[in-house]
Write a structure and sequence with these properties.
It is a single chain. This protein has helices at about 15-30, 45-55, 80-85, 95-100, 105-115, 130-135, 140-150, 155-160, 180-195, 200-205, 215-220, 240-249, and strands spanning about 5-10, 35-40, 60, 90, 120-125, 160-165, 205-210, 230. It is of the alpha/beta class. Strand 3, helix 3 and strand 4 form a beta-alpha-beta unit. The longest helix is centred in the C-terminal third of the chain and has 19 residues, at about 180-195. The radius of gyration is 17 Å and the shape is globular. It starts with a strand and ends with a helix. The structure holds phosphoenolpyruvate (PEP). Phosphoenolpyruvate binds next to strand 8.
Length: about 250
Amino acid sequence: MSRKMVAGNWKMNTTPAEGRALAQAIIEHANPTVPIIFGVPAIQLLSIQDIALEAAHFHVAAQNMHEQDSGAYTGEISAPMLADAGIEYVILGHSERREYYGENDELIGKKVLNALKHGIKPIYCCGEKLPVREIGQQEEVVGQQLKTALFELDADQFSKVTIAYEPVWAIGTGKTASPEQAQAMHAYLRGLINENYGSKVADQTTILYGGSVKPVNASDLFSQPDVDGGLVGGASLKAEDFAAIIAAV
Ligand code: PEP
């Protein structure tokens, strides 16, 4: 089973009309053989889902969801809503959710569990900030994020989770982790998964790299043995760039 995947995170960009044009242009330019995920604003989930369903290998992700099934949580969307709409993936724990909306790994762990309960596959984002990297504590910090948010899951649940390692200092900054830095962290995380769930689960877990992935650096990053593809922000908004990144995987 291939671990390869490329996911785009459009963040709070594109109107519904722009989003439809972007998805169509990407599908025209790209010829994927592995899952490609469009992480789109909530208002576009259904329209991009309609487009993705027409093309092989394209899927849609929400960029967030609430940890409860329903209730008085104005402005939120829930896992049952996503599941009923046929949305297969949800991005959880993105560093922007952590930074601007105070999400921590306890909360993200609840969201992961609720997504799984409703058959939605979480793309769990983790990653250290620059000061942590500067003192060489990145493995401890990112390892702890996984332990808190994910390692209460049983092996069957965990096997449905995609990990996205996104060093915060590389997101939207133009600074990319070197292929060696990405590989070192991915290998470390796969080792932790091995310790907790055994080698079969570890070997099958998709671990994406995110942080200023572009056509110019995608091949070098994706050729590392434990880097299974990318979670792409800025470059996922340009059809030709995203298609080139898809080609690199
Ligand atoms: C992201 O938003 O997950 C991301 C990696 O952004 P960028 O590619 O723009 O750094």
